[in-house]
Amino acid sequence: MSQTSNLQRQAKLSDSCFSIRTQMERLPLQATNIDALVSPCDKCEARSHSACALLDPSEQKQIVSIMTTVQIAPQQPLFDEAEPAEHVYNVTGGALKIYKLLPDGRRQITGFLFPGDFVGLMHNDVYAYSAEALVPTALCRFSRRRLEDLLSEIPHLEQRLLGMASHELAAAQDQMILLGRKSARERVVSFLVMLSNSAVRRHQPADPVSLPMNRTDIADYLGLTIETVSRTFTQLKKQGLIQLLDDKNIHLAKPAALRDIATGF
Amino acid sequence: MSQTSNLQRQAKLSDSCFSIRTQMERLPLQATNIDALVSPCDKCEARSHSACALLDPSEQKQIVSIMTTVQIAPQQPLFDEAEPAEHVYNVTGGALKIYKLLPDGRRQITGFLFPGDFVGLMHNDVYAYSAEALVPTALCRFSRRRLEDLLSEIPHLEQRLLGMASHELAAAQDQMILLGRKSARERVVSFLVMLSNSAVRRHQPADPVSLPMNRTDIADYLGLTIETVSRTFTQLKKQGLIQLLDDKNIHLAKPAALRDIATGF
DNA sequence: CGGTCCTTTGACACAGGTCAAGTAATGTGG
DNA sequence: CCACATTACTTGACCTGTGTCAAAGGACCG
After folding, report:
1. Within 10 Å of residue A236's Cβ, how many Cβ atoms?
2. Considering the domain B178-263, what is its CATH architecture?
3. Does the model's pTM come out above 0.90?
4. Given 3.30.420.40, 3.40.50.300, 3.20.20.210, 1.10.10.10, which CATH number is that of A182-263?
5. How many whole angstroms separate alpha carbon B45 and alpha carbon B250?
6. Is the CB of A234 under 7 A from strand C?
7. Å from A203 to nearest chain B CA?
8. Which pLDDT tens digit goes with each residue over A174-228?
9. Cβ of B112 under 8 Å from any chain A Cβ?
10. What is the distance between the alpha carbons of residues B66 and B4, in angstroms, rounded to a whole number?
11. By the CB < 8 Å criterion, does A126 face chain B?
12. Which residue ranges make up each domain of chain A?
């Protein structure tokens, strides 16, 4: 694909942007690739400050010209930690997990990524984490070097990236208080509330929360074991706070109470 | 101070940059304010890619013109979480902690900051965390709005900030694996190794590690209790891995072994 | 229909938390 | 210079939330 002309690339791009549907997820792709790169931040409720407005059509064209699209199947790695970082990606459909490992295999999932999210944090030219698809996933790939060239030409873009980075940083700090100071129950509830909020941001229903990841992934994200995650779900169910429609879909029966638990009240 | 002329500001600035010495710390201030803003990243060993080289003298002058200096005493807050964020800061001397609280008072310290570090992450125009001095601390303050204006004029600066943000993000992920997956022993050792590395980056000796913070702060940073931190120090001491010169100064007796423990071997 | 994988549940263990007391360092007023 | 208070750190005894180990569903699939 890297040998195709820009024109061909653009054509494929449009294909992917407007018509891809993942098989297991019912996530409609609501954004063009451009929109994805400049989509609203991961934490704000508002969609108001999309940087798309800051880019004029010729600038948009420039971005499109250095993009290719990638699709990966569930369980497929996108890249591994410490691998030379040649690309950055923007998720357009599906879901990914990013994680770090300790030498003995202990794993910490540092984030789940959904359409609109940016992937490819690097440190000293290597990726800072591994990334793997949870479900069939579509991404836009940017050559890192060419994107950097573009950054100096389109200052708005850099501003946008800086904004994304600081929101990710804020999210990372929320995760630190979760991992350092919250109980298992608070962690699980925080996780459900977070997924629900994230769905709303992507114009999906807040309520039956869909979990594209398995219990092991949830445990490795929350710093718990699968047994504790499972027991906590059972406990919340018995207390009438949630309902497990099935393994992967949870109904938040008392959203207000759950929000209180998540924030530590 | 905000009413003084730029010239006066610059004079004060130089004072603060070259002559301030904190009372409790023996941290010489090795950088000008400009250097601090563009000082090497928090995680790289190399000082090579200082963005200072990217700024021409007139650009440097522009930065200096929107700066004022601030000094705060130990235990003094710099700002609180959720407060409107009007300034960003660069630490030039001393040390700070940044933290978040849960409603019932549980606290997670998300970072300790030293000369060269940047403070003032905001989200939706309010600070994302509280910041408080550990020891007498000197900072350079930038009006956020004026800095933003400057960013559009000096693209290099934005690049530099983006670099700082992604390194902070990488550090945040290291902290997540620590909080989510490491034992108390591994956390404490990781902390000591991290402080030692951080001292080296600031051109100070790697070995007697100086702890400007108390046990409560260490516990709240590592997601433990003060008792566990204290017991772990004692255990490491008994095993001949460290030596407590006093409460606040620790000798790393077996650095290689400690590094292995920290990385999870 | 047997195998595989994921989730749930149960019994038990233990790392780290809690509560309480002891020790050391520092400051304060007489 | 000394009683005394204060604060920070350490240590001990005990407890509990979460981990560990093991087994039992349950869903999916060839």
Report:
1. 23
2. Orthogonal Bundle (1.10)
3. no
4. 1.10.10.10
5. 22
6. yes
7. 21
8. 999 999 999 999 999 999 999 999 999 999 999 999 999 999 999 999 999 999 9
9. no
10. 11
11. no
12. 6-168, 182-263
